[in-house]
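Assemble and predict.
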Amino acid sequence: MEEALIAQYHPADEMRCPIHFCIGQEAVPAALSLLLKPEDYLFSHHRTHGYYFAKGAPLRELFAEIYGRATGANGGLAGSQDISHTESRFFGGAILAGAVCIAAGAAFGLQHQKAKGISVAGFGEGATDEGAFWEAVNHAGAKSLPILFVVENNRYATFSDQLKRQQTDNIAERVAPFGVKSQSLFGNDAPLVWKTLSQAVNSVRNGSGPMLVEAYTYRWNSHVGPEDDGFNKYRPQREIDFWKRNCPISLLRQKLEKLDWIDNGEVSQMESEIAGEIAECFAFAKASPFPSEANWHSRNFSNATPVADALLAEEESTDFNPSQGEAKLAPY
Amino acid sequence: MEEALIAQYHPADEMRCPIHFCIGQEAVPAALSLLLKPEDYLFSHHRTHGYYFAKGAPLRELFAEIYGRATGANGGLAGSQDISHTESRFFGGAILAGAVCIAAGAAFGLQHQKAKGISVAGFGEGATDEGAFWEAVNHAGAKSLPILFVVENNRYATFSDQLKRQQTDNIAERVAPFGVKSQSLFGNDAPLVWKTLSQAVNSVRNGSGPMLVEAYTYRWNSHVGPEDDGFNKYRPQREIDFWKRNCPISLLRQKLEKLDWIDNGEVSQMESEIAGEIAECFAFAKASPFPSEANWHSRNFSNATPVADALLAEEESTDFNPSQGEAKLAPY
Amino acid sequence: MNRSISYAEAIREATDQALGLSDQVIVLGQLVDTPSGIFGTTTGLAEKHGADRVQDYPVSENLMTAAALGAALTGLRPVVCHQRLDFMIYSMDAITNWLALWRFKSNGKSGVPVTIRAIVGKGWGQGPQHSKSLHAWFAHLPGLRVAMPATAFDAKGLLLESIFGEDPTIIIEGRGLFSMKEEVPEKPYRVRFGKALIRRVGRDATLVALGSMVPPAMRAAEILAQEGISVEVIDPRTISPLDRPAILESVSKTGHLVVAEPGWQSFGAAAEIIAAVAENPASGLKSPPVRVNFPDSHTPMSMALEKLYYPGEQEIAEAVRGTLKKS
Amino acid sequence: MNRSISYAEAIREATDQALGLSDQVIVLGQLVDTPSGIFGTTTGLAEKHGADRVQDYPVSENLMTAAALGAALTGLRPVVCHQRLDFMIYSMDAITNWLALWRFKSNGKSGVPVTIRAIVGKGWGQGPQHSKSLHAWFAHLPGLRVAMPATAFDAKGLLLESIFGEDPTIIIEGRGLFSMKEEVPEKPYRVRFGKALIRRVGRDATLVALGSMVPPAMRAAEILAQEGISVEVIDPRTISPLDRPAILESVSKTGHLVVAEPGWQSFGAAAEIIAAVAENPASGLKSPPVRVNFPDSHTPMSMALEKLYYPGEQEIAEAVRGTLKKS
Ligand SMILES: Cc1ncc(C[n+]2csc(CCOP(=O)(O)OP(=O)(O)O)c2C)c(N)n1
Ligand SMILES: Cc1ncc(C[n+]2csc(CCOP(=O)(O)OP(=O)(O)O)c2C)c(N)n1
Ligand SMILES: [Mg+2]
Ligand SMILES: [Mg+2]
């Protein structure tokens, strides 16, 4: 899907929004897609596509959103980095760590209402530079919130090496003394990722408190957009080569082939099904209308107040006597 | 000094600003007062008096400040919780964790300029709820900054128990994996506090990177102001009794008497010297004029730009051609 | 006959009733669960409704707002309390980048009814970190409602309207108002956003007063009445939405406008009110409008300077006299 | 003859020269040390002046601003760069509760010359979290200077003036302006705060344009000139301090005022400009002033809506025509 989007990105200049591709980082979202239930909430950082998919949100609405169409998941208002799909309980956003804090609130809401479901936050190691992230970790630990933090540690925030920004590359170790159980792992071994996340999801689901899983992985592409950002010389070629050799999809395929669980025919069939689906998504997006009405006010405010209408009376205030002294603050 | 301030607080209603007394928490600032040098910077939270004193700032200007006089350390603009004394490199402020971040910047400035001196931040365990605090810790660890973090852990943020807000009461343990060496100790044993802080100050001074010292201590008084806040029933009487029995000043005095290093005569002499100094401070404050000129603009902006005057030329711009297209952002 | 209760009691009563009316309502804030209860506005509520519904919060202001948003997604209606607006500035990211734009960004599919109570300190040496009112900032943000209740009646009605409304709201509460009493109905009632109140009908000049400037504005009108000047006092009650038509109607009657605002003058709310009137061809302004604000300076601690800093009824009355003279 | 360089190059040159002029100058920001260098404005500077002086910073925006303040206390003159103003909102506490009030609170004893560069995204689907301009917020704060350079010449001169001045400053840089070229002197020079520039002399109406609205305002003036309408275009260049006298003088000549601002209308900077004119008895306004702003809405991503959202020269021209018709 990401490759297909990239191929189409520039030619027509129709996808006009920053896109952070997640090629090379497929394992974590793919594993989550098998583990999350409709009642769970998933909150994503700017690199949204994998997580969007993981929560089972409709693919054609993702394509339409990127194309800025009225049929997009957000009616073309949000784009790739801010996409959400309310019905699927999936919410993304581009400001680092912001969505992690919101995820903590959703976890609290579920816990408070004794509702089924857990809250999951997916983000990169860069977000852990932000103080806001540590407020969420601290609170999750103190309140034993049903939240799973998933860090895809790809070593870079844009072009900045983690070790320029943090003293160690081990976030899992740092959250543990806050009361957040944690585990780190090689994030490109899909079965291992699935197993680890499965245990983590179950642990959080069973009320054992918050967990953090740190998956070491790598992004193949530029930080944003399809153009090569290699001129920034921020990562060595052998590092890129190492991770490309350890592509999560190839590794999985090798393993499955060894086990004789799939054969080439099946793979080709899957590939052509996927290609078909993607083609259908492109067609849907391109055939969809653009949003046309400005409607600025009603886009930003609700027009109705049904709950207030049901619960509150109408009253007129009587005269107010203004010659009263102000509250004395002393001494604070 | 604090007791004297309290005795005078209400009768005349002349000290009109929130004051967070530090009775019971004397050991840390007292020890720092012996360890810090003029070139060091000290940044304090709202409970400022001990730290103000620790940096050798003039006592009479503290009193005058609290009385809102023009002769105050800040000309009566700041009050107790926001007091600073630029000449002494002492800076306080009431917003939690804010001053800790500034302290990290001062540490960076010293390191960058290879200047003598270290940066010290004094604060309570409440400030460590703030994400901003963790940004400072992370950065100090990553850059090996010459900063000493001093937490006076008195267990409460206002009336809120630390264990309502944090999963454990051990901040020292939490900063260590960020690359900040740390140590915790019983904070009312003045000689121990001195020894620990002395080692810490030396370590930071010698360029061994950041340190955090967590001193478990207790405040006797209300969170703010002299009135009893016991009606909030936030701490048990036996806890208060325990800590009052472990008053840092009494403990020190007992120890010194046991060692025969001081006798009653010396203590009385010290007490009367201190009483004299305090009386002098009160007299100075009360005799000082109030600030009278509003001068709002020049209080908020500098009138002169001496550096710019020296370095920059005056130039007139030529015509600007407005028919240029805007920068094309694509795709980011 | 209604009882007379204070502004603080009215807030407490509204919160108590909201907690009773719906399980969705929760209260978050530092010390909301203690007997002192945010200057008496939450006292006893944790005992009555449970400490999980009236919940002490860590000193993590950014998280508090963001978490309220997340909780709202799960169906709750959180009320977030800040003892000082200054502390809440740590949560500007949560307010600006998330809360205010959530409905917009979701294409109307997801609303987050979060109520934020922000108390503005005043006097007694609060100093520059305990006294800022940034209501104009919040009113500048699309997607946020901003209320500035001046009386106990409005404090209760606007808080209930906010809690049970569908959009995020910031309520600016002037600390000096907390003791002021007024007749307040016992039942839970609403005061709608965007509906100004004419607090005093007048002929000669329109005096728009916001929040804690309402009582001194009313006293100024009383002083001026003694001098034969009839002032119409308008209290917009909310500044987002702002009832521009009500202000315009009054000005088109009186021809003169003074705005009294408890905040810095430049780029403040008074500027918006004056601009809204000036740009309307029907306003019929007969003299230049005048602003009564705090000076463009941080708040001094010393009471000697506090007196010069905060304007009161005399300054307002003088401004009205001035605008009438100029016409 | 001066060379013609772009807005981005002018910023880069100013920074390069500042780093050369004084060891006190340092640059902090995410990715300032990379070849892409904040849209070319810091490219090559780390190589030339050292990566300790042009320093990549963790994604910790609040710390970055507070640390710049702390560094300024030790004698440095930090320049803090944000790729988007939206990211900087995390540092509102450092800006509002510390930086803006530092000089005041120290009773004039301590100044903190911190320069903050905030880039405002526009177009190409930036969406609501990458396109906000909150210049009006910053101008509301006492103790902060706020610049909105519209041209390469001003971008260089204001940045240098800020770096070597004594007060903290926020410079709002419109991303769309980065490619625009102008003749720029090579030597390091200053553009003073609070001095508006008359970019085009005119007779019939005053058009005040801020930041990235300056080029479309100039184009609108050109369009109107073809129709025989002579417009005076004023670029305040800084909004704190704001050159109110220059605006007033122009309006008292033309009698008509239109303000074009790249930001939300309600409670924005245009309101302050209109209020400042309206409240002055000498302004001699002959028709109601008009604002040309973004609508009071968050920014839509879709290019179809972006087109409706951002006003350009046509909207400005139409506003000027309107105000002349009404008189
Ligand atoms: C508050 C904030 N600051 C800066 C940015 C700009 N930014 C966008 S993505 C990014 C790097 C994120 O790195 P990481 O969190 O590791 O995720 P990755 O891109 O590696 O998946 C940065 C700094 C932002 N979006 N939000
Ligand atoms: C950002 C912020 N939030 C809230 C407050 C209100 N407040 C003042 S002191 C305090 C408690 C501080 O506790 P701690 O840091 O442990 O210091 P202590 O008072 O115990 O010495 C709080 C919450 C504040 N000053 N700043
Ligand atoms: Mg990363
Ligand atoms: Mg404490």
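Residues 63 and 117 of chain B are 28 Å apart (CA to CA).
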